[in-house]
Amino acid sequence: MSDVKSNRLMLENLVCPVTQGTLKFDKKSNELISSEAKLAFPIRGGIPIMLIDEARKMD
Q1: Structural domain containing residue 12
Q2: What is the pLDDT of residues 10-57, one digit of tens each?
Q3: Which pLDDT band, with edges at 50, 70 and 90, does 2 fall under?
Q4: 1, 12, 18, 56: least buried by Cβ within 10 Å?
Q5: How far apart are CA 1 and CA 35, in angstroms?
Q6: C-alpha pair distances (Å), 55 with each of 1, 3, 44, 47
Q7: Is residue 13 within 8 Å of residue 32, measured between CB atoms?
Q8: Structural domain tally of the chain?
Q9: Which CATH number fits the domain that encloses residue 25?
Q10: What CA–CA distance (Å, rounded) separates 6 from 53?
Q11: How far apart are CA 5 and CA 18, in angstroms?
């Protein structure tokens, strides 16, 4: 399996650590967005950082 395909599958299976809801990948900001929790989780070096303390709060 290619790295791109496996990375996409991994991102599709992640859920918000706060709400357990789905996340939306924002390619422009390279973040996983939880609309319900109003948090944006960064992806650094290809690794999603799913720590609440590391998430950016959204309005």
Answers
A1: 3-57
A2: 878 899 999 999 999 999 999 999 999 999 999 999 899 999 999 999
A3: low
A4: 1
A5: 30
A6: 30, 25, 12, 14
A7: no
A8: 1
A9: 2.20.25.10
A10: 26
A11: 26
